[in-house]
Design goal:
about 600 residues, Rossmann fold, 3 domains, globular
């Protein structure tokens, strides 16, 4: 006989899990004890369940393994919800195991009563998380533990990945079970992809007919484990490759096929290439609003669109309509296409490729004027300099706002390097816990954390975590005195009336260098471009965790970016992706449109 909690811990190791993110709690007492004494299983403690959940995501993104989080009942579960939502939207495999009150004191034991709560600190977490998980289950029968846990792991890691949740009442955790009597989860048949060969053949036909084809590299390529196959495909086709917001680290700057980054905060060159293409093959990208804009009818409007996605719902949504919809695992599609590509390729696109790469070079994001600022440091210049100095084995994790926008537009990606943020949820407070998880997922390598001053405040307690574990997480706080994205919106739409976006409007911030010192971190402050390189090198060379306060100017703007144009009569006109602000002279703009 074995305690159910011990069986759960051991079964996790049998599924290849070696690390669990955890905050202890009375409702998860047996689970905590089991994890703590299970051979081959290490636990990692944060100071907030949101940080544990996001840490598990960072760990999964870098290690490629399932992220596992153990929480207690009530607020332990609800505190983790932001992490769950981010993983649901960005398709990250994650398993949550929560403690629950004894089953006889759950509202599930007496549904006819219509109670809000029966047990102490009880909340019906499985119903709360059901809309944002692939599987949500309250384990009431101890003999169902193997079947439920195995099903949860399988669903989290197959198809379109995502989070799953297993809620285990206190008495069920403590129950003794006979392993020989545990029913197994029935194996699922391999999913079939009807018509895939025909659609691959049609893709080849469309590529041969195209004059200006391009590949869109989506996050799904990594989720499918298709990075190597994708690189082979790009090498074989020799056509422009466009990077996406959620998968931009798949395409290193040094790639001979790299033609820029696309979307509302993409690069000017990338969007010119996209909008001039006559065929786009979208691989594992859900083409979200940030990528296609609110004027989605004009997304790659001159191109036929082949969209490959494992989720059939993404192919039917009312925005971008594919000319050829391929509902398949992107790895199967790429490998199938490679299998029928002729050795000589599908055509000579060298002129088109050169045109795209020349546009990308012609319109750099980091302008010379950024390097000459007298006060503060341009976030674009800083991130370009920082990422240029990093070795490819250093993961870079960023929060929302300036950190992710400037990283996407100006970051230098090396081959094999992991750079990421959460795209779908884009929560403030993501940066530091995700960087902690990334550091653990890399085996304890140096990890860069790019955090806005507003964002880091939302999980500031995790400075104690990096200090305690002595993790080499190098935190660069982009200090712009508040919520710059909100400030810019209020200036643009509300005549400069500022509300709740900085010190002058109600939101105060500490001295970050002194704060870092209080936690025992190596600290530095960068106030000008002239000292930037030296300070970055010192921070990266320091032992253990470090915090660098990077002082940004208060009035910088995100650019280029998609923006409406205000006409002389006051009317606002939406612009297509190729026409980014600051708007080019019309003659120059037209020179970037083919035929």
């Amino acid at each position: 006989m074995i305690r159910l909690a011990d069986y759960v811990a051991r079964r996790l190791t049998e599924h290849g899990v070696s690390r669990v993110f955890m905050i202890s709690g009375g409702g998860a007492m047996h689970l905590n004890d089991a994890v703590g004494k299970c051979p081959g299983l290490e636990y990692f403690c944060s100071h907030h369940e949101q940080a544990s959940a996001i840490g598990a995501e960072g760990y999964s993104r870098v290690s490629g393994k399932l992220g596992v989080t153990v929480v207690t009942t009530g607020p332990g579960g609800t505190n983790a919800l932001t992490g769950v939502i981010g993983q649901w939207l960005d398709s990250i495999p994650a398993l949550y195991i929560s403690g629950q009150v004894k089953f006889k004191t759950t509202i599930a034991s007496c549904p006819e009563a219509g109670l809000r709560q029966l047990g102490d600190q009880e909340i019906n977490i499985t119903d709360i998380v059901r809309p944002v998980t692939k599987f949500s289950y309250l384990l009431t029968d101890p003999l169902e533990v193997k079947r439920a846990l195995d099903k949860a792991v399988r669903l989290a890691t197959t198809g379109r990945p995502g989070p799953v949740w297993l809620d285990i009442p206190f008495d069920v955790q403590a129950a003794l079970i006979d392993e020989t009597k545990l029913p197994s989860c029935e194996p699922e048949p391999e999913p079939e992809t009807p018509g895939l060969k025909e659609k691959i053949s049609e893709t080849l036909k469309m590529l041969r007919a195209a004059k200006r084809p391009a590949l869109i590299a989506g996050h799904g390529i990594r989720l499918a484990g298709a990075e190597a196959a994708f690189e082979k495909l790009a090498d074989a086709l020799k056509i422009p490759v466009l990077a996406t917001f959620a998968g931009f680290d798949l395409v290193p700057d040094e790639s001979p096929w790299f033609a820029g980054r696309i979307g509302t905060v993409g690069t000017r060159g990338g969007n010119f290439s996209l909008q001039n293409a006559d065929l786009v093959v979208s691989l594992g990208s859900r083409n979200n609003i940030r990528q296609v804009s609110y004027d989605w009818g004009n997304f790659a409007r001159r191109a036929k669109k082949i969209i490959v996605d494992i989720d059939p719902a993404e192919l039917k949504k009312p925005t971008v309509k594919p000319d050829l919809a391929v509902n398949a695992d992107v790895k199967d599609f790429i490998e199938g296409l490679l299998g029928i590509l002729p050795r000589e390729g599908v055509g000579n696109f060298s002129g088109w490729l050169a045109w795209c790469r020349e546009r990308n070079a012609r319109y750099p994001v980091v302008l010379e004027e950024y390097k000459k600022l007298k006060e503060g440091v341009s976030p674009y210049h800083f991130i370009h300099e920082l990422t240029g100095l990093l070795s490819p084995d250093v993961p870079v994790v960023s929060g929302n706002g300036s950190a992710c926008v400037c990283l996407f537009q100006a970051g230098i990606v090396k081959k094999g390097q992991k750079m990421f943020f959460n795209s779908g949820c884009a929560s403030m407070g993501y940066d530091l816990p995700a960087a902690i998880g990334a550091c653990l997922g890399s085996g304890g390598k140096k990890t860069v954390c790019l955090a806005g001053d507003g964002s880091i405040m939302m999980n500031l307690q995790e400075l104690a975590t990096v200090a305690h574990y002595k993790l080499p997480v190098k935190i660069f706080v982009l200090n712009n005195g508040g919520y710059i994205s909100i400030k810019q919106t209020q200036e643009n739409f509300f005549q400069g009336r500022l509300v709740a976006c900085g010190p002058s409007s109600g939101v105060g911030f500490p001295d970050f260098a002194r704060l870092g010192e209080a936690f025992g971190l190596y600290t530095a402050v960068i106030t000008s471009a002239g000292e930037m390189r030296e300070k970055i090198e010192k921070v990266m060379a320091s032992e253990g965790p470090a915090l660098c306060d990077v002082r940004l100017p208060a009035d910088y703007k995100f650019m280029p970016k998609l923006s409406s144009e205000k006409k002389a009569d006051g009317t606002m006109v939406s612009k297509p992706l190729e026409d980014m602000w600051p708007f080019l002279d019309r003659k120059e703009f037209e020179e970037n449109i083919i035929g």
